[in-house]
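Priority: medium. Attachment 1 of 2:
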């Protein structure tokens, strides 16, 4: 069975009752965190531009945009809420930044389909699982992707967003395979945009890809059912043959929840996750030694060389 099929079956058939209490609690925590940082972004200049563009583009009033009185199409709402959620670089981190791609895609359909809270938690948890399973399959090669300029958030986030959105609208396994595969065809995101407002758009684009692909699949749009693992599919295109292990997709799938282990980090600082350890260490030094800013002459931080492809600003 292909990896696309395995993930599609999982995403379409998993229900809230299948989740463990730990997975539910962790997913709720990250839904709250993501919504909060998205709301905070609406007060920023870049956030206001996103809201302006969304309003100017119009659309059927089916889904709400965070921090505003706007209701627009599911596609536009997913893009806006995804961009807002990633804009401040304050959203969760771990296996990249999944929730900012996944929650906005699920929310885009939740109101229209009268989803319950349990439906939403399940959809987000499913999306997180798909994201991490894709990420772990290519993790040995991820440092090469980053060195070339690809942002994993917006690579894996497209299919993960489709899994979450498809869960809300109850796609069957065949439709889900189409949605996940079509979403993967939108994968992108360049780390050249790090340090600018451009990074936030990566999550917005992934959420939009997930929703638009779900809408197509829902109407039985035809697409290749092996969009992830075909010879010319996602993994071959981005990682190249020999640089991924799709057997990892199915390891304890449905019984081991990635939101619990390895889990995600809720950030204490609005910046790239690659900075968090150094910032914690610096804060500890300040507290333990009662240091003031003017006392500091020089600060040295040792990092793995690969990190300099992500946090490249001195």
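Attachment 2 of 2:
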């Amino acid at each position: 069975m292909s990896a696309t099929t395995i993930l599609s079956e999982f995403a379409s058939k998993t229900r809230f009752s299948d989740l463990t209490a730990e997975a539910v609690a962790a997913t709720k925590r990250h839904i709250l965190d993501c919504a909060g940082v998205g709301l905070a972004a609406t007060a920023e200049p870049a956030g206001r531009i996103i809201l302006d563009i969304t309003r100017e583009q119009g659309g059927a009033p089916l889904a709400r945009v965070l921090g505003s009185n706007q209701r627009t199409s599911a596609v536009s709402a997913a893009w806006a809420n995804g961009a807002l959620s990633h804009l401040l670089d304050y959203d969760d981190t771990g296996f990249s930044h999944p929730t900012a791609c996944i929650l906005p895609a699920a929310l885009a359909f939740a109101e229209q389909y009268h989803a319950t809270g349990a439906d939403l938690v399940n959809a987000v948890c499913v999306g997180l699982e798909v994201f991490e399973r894709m990420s772990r399959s290519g993790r040995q090669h991820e440092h090469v992707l980053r060195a070339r300029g690809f942002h994993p958030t917006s690579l894996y986030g497209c299919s993960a967003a489709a899994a979450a959105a498809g869960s809300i609208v109850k796609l069957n396994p065949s439709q889900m395979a189409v949605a996940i595969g079509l979403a993967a065809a939108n994968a992108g995101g360049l780390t050249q945009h790090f340090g600018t407002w451009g990074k936030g758009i990566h999550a917005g684009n992934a959420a939009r890809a997930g929703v638009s692909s779900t809408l197509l699949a829902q109407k039985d749009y035809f697409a290749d059912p092996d969009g992830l693992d075909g010879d010319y599919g996602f993994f071959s295109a981005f990682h190249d043959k020999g640089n991924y292990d799709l057997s990892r997709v199915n390891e304890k799938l449905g019984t081991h929840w990635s939101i619990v282990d390895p889990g995600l980090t809720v950030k204490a600082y609005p910046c790239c996750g690659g900075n968090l350890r150094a910032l914690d260490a610096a804060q500890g030094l300040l507290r333990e030694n009662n240091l003031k800013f003017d006392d500091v002459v020089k600060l040295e931080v040792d990092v793995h060389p690969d990190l300099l492809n992500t946090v490249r600003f001195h």
